[in-house]
Amino acid sequence: MAGVSFLCVAAAALLLLGTGGAIPPPEEAARMARFVLHNCDWGALATLSAQEGLRGQPFANVFSLSDGPPGPLGGSGVPYLYLTDMEISVQDLEINSNASLTVSLAQTPYCKKHRYDPQNPLCAHIIFCGSIVKVNDSEAGLAKKALFSRHPEMESWPKDHNWFFAKFNITNIWVLDYFGGLKIVTPEEYYSVKP
After folding, report:
1. Is the pLDDT assigned to residue 149 strictly greater than 60?
2. Domain assignments of the chain as residue spans, ordered by start
3. What superkingdom does the record give (predicted)?
4. How many CB atoms lie within 10 A of CB 60?
């Protein structure tokens, strides 16, 4: 019976996502992490709140993100964000830059096509831990191309909000893409593979 379920998962791994790439098999956790991030346009960023009444409490918020232009070869693996100090989570990050970021294939056609609930491990999701840092001038062009290629509306956001490009500096990665619990991937493993 276990062999049959593995064959079903392997067959599902060969199916294409709506974005044009084949989902990696469960034994390739680092590739899965890169794949999921590259195929997601947003994620849930969790910070420790600095807001009155919530100080020190976990606080999750949705942010648009991109690791590069769409397509199978467009991803760098670096989650870029377009932020303003006016945003409540960014105010949290000014006090403590540590955060976690969760991205899930639930936002792609893949899980709906297979009728996977977002909480089903086969609807892969990745949890990144690390910190948010502003990008330097040499990286700003890359971040801009990555974000504006997926989120063209960003170019017209109010200039007086003092938007800036930032990236999620990854220190830990957990992959949940199959039954049996989380898989740990190091940043070195993650950046050494293609999605």
Report:
1. yes
2. 29-192
3. Eukaryota
4. 14
- For the domain with range 29-192, which CATH number is right: 2.30.110.10, 3.30.750.24, 3.40.50.300, 3.40.50.880? 2.30.110.10
How far is 7 from 14, CA to CA, in rounded Å? 11
CA separation for the pair 10, 80 (Å, rounded): 31
CA atoms of 155 and 85, how far apart (whole Å)? 17
Query: DSSP for the chain?
Result: -HHHHHHHHHHHHHSBPTTS-BPPPTT-HHHHHHHHHHT-SEEEEEEE--STTTTTSEEEEEEE-BSSSSSTT---S--EEEE-TTSHHHHHHHH--EEEEEEEGGGSHHHHHTT--TTSTTS-EEEEEEEEEEPPHHHHHHHHHHHHHH-GGGGGS-GGG--EEEEEEEEEEEEE-STT--EEE-HHHHHTS--
